[in-house]
Amino acid sequence: MAVVILGTEMDVWPAARVTSAWSKRVDVERVEVISWDVTQSACAMLPGVDVVHALPLANLRARARMHALAPAAALDAALQGIVDGRAFDHVLNMTYARTSGFLAPLLARSPHAVVGPFIGDAGDWRWSHPALAYLATWGLDPALNVFAHQDLWATAARVRMDEGGTLDPDPVADNLAASAIAQGRPAPLVVVPAKLSRPVLGGAWEDLVSMLMHRNRRPVMLMATPRNEMLIAPLARRTGAEVARWPTRHLAALMRRSAGVLTADHGASLLAARVGVKQIVLRPAKPLPCAALPGPNALMVTPQSGLPSAEDVQTLAATHLLGLPLAESAVRLASRRFEVREVAYDKEGCLAASLPAWWDAPPQRRAEDETLAAWRSVWRSTWLGIPPAPADVLHVLTRGDETRVHRACHDRGPLGEALRAMIDHKTKEHVA
Fold first, then answer.
1. Separation between Cα atoms, residue 12 and residue 284, nearest integer Å
2. How many CA atoms lie within 13 A of 288 on its CB side?
3. Closest CA to 238 of 197, 215, 210
4. pLDDT in the model for residue 213
5. Which residues touch 223 (CB under 8 Å, ≥6 apart)?
6. So what's the pLDDT on residue 372?
7. For position 199, what pLDDT does the model report?
8. CA distance 107 to 4
């Protein structure tokens, strides 16, 4: 089996559940990953993977400046070295990059062996599963989407969504992480700031890190990424926090040994989810996009009428990451300015972000969580080829968002048919 991941590290981590499950299948002898060289080290961390083949992205870009056809020739040569006359029985394409869309059917023994999106003979995108057609349409619109994107990839690969995919411990990396944590000190909090988070935290990263260190009496490790390097150095200098500028597998080991992760970086939140550590994720979007849910044990913080302060986030970290009690008065005041949601698996096995029982929220906001669950249920039923439950269909029609209901009623597939049939049934009941 070949897994094609021609994207960034953020495209790598959702593949963990798939590679883990497929490596245990009796009809799969080996799992081989084909990626760009820039993500080779991350792909090597995926569970169940036997070999990682790296395509030379930088080399292809350099050759593009020499001649328009030079990258194609270099890519063909690299692929010939990987394939070596073979054809894969299963090819799973995990990205919508056009290169991987063309590549997937070329690697497969037959077109039917491709799992995921691919480009057909006519140059159009095709999908091996209706969940991927959803991803390419509904899934790209935050106002319509109700699924975490990683759940859609798992559905298309026909693996369980609510288990597996945890990264295996790396003894060498774990020893380095252990040596970086002074003996006798409590486990550190890992903080991953990002400039995109300034609208979320108001730029108060220095205040937050200082509070975590002094109020909670915890060491803080700042995790450096290519996206936050300009922010990390002055932040470490002003707060005295340590900085981890390590390879990805060592950062994963640090997360595994930490008390928890506080991040505004989407890639870091996906990595923390695959490690299995508790985390708090600061998001600039309002409302919270379902597509970005990282995994269970995450607390998502999004602005509402205002921004959470550094003190608000420090209080949430003390509760969610360190297990300290949360004052009811603090919840009431905070809930007027921002919203907190817990990520867990719902009854369908899908990731869902729901309002915690301890968060102060009006009943209508909690009812929205039930409606999103009903939407996920009807969609999954149609993908499985079974009629959706009438109670769920009626629920989304009567309580669903108007934009989402209108779009679904015009759907040409089984979902649209089910909704229109329910509308006709209720109309006839009303007339009678």
1. 23
2. 29
3. 210
4. 92
5. 190, 191, 192, 244, 251, 254, 263, 268
6. 94
7. 63
8. 10
- pLDDT at residue 203, rounded to an integer: 64
Q: What distances in angstroms separate CA 423 from CA 170, 202, 274, 396, 406, one per listed residue? A: 55, 47, 42, 11, 12
Question: Which pLDDT score, from 0 to 100, does residue 198 have?
Answer: 57
> What pLDDT score was predicted for residue 71?
76
Spatial neighbors of 2 by CB under 8 A, at least 6 apart, are 32, 33, 34, 88, 90, 91, 92, 107
Residues of the chain predicted below pLDDT 50: none
DSSP-assigned letter for residue 196: G
Beta bridge partners of 91: 2, 114
Strand partners for 340 = 301
Tokens of 327: 């004052």
Cβ neighbours around 427 below 10 Å, total: 10
pLDDT of residue 196: 57
Selection from 97, 92, 91 nearest residue 110 by Cα: 91
- In DSSP notation, 87-149 reads -BS-EEE----HHHHHHHHHHBSSGGGEESEEE-TTS-EEESSHHHHHHHTGGG-TTT--S-H
Predicted local distance difference test score (pLDDT) of residue 83: 81
Which residue stretches of 225-265 are H helix? 229-239, 248-257
| H or E segment and range at residue 303 | strand 298-303
Residue 75 confidence (pLDDT)? 81
In one-letter notation, the amino acid at residue 203 is G
Task: Give the containing element (helix H, strand E) for 164.
Answer: none
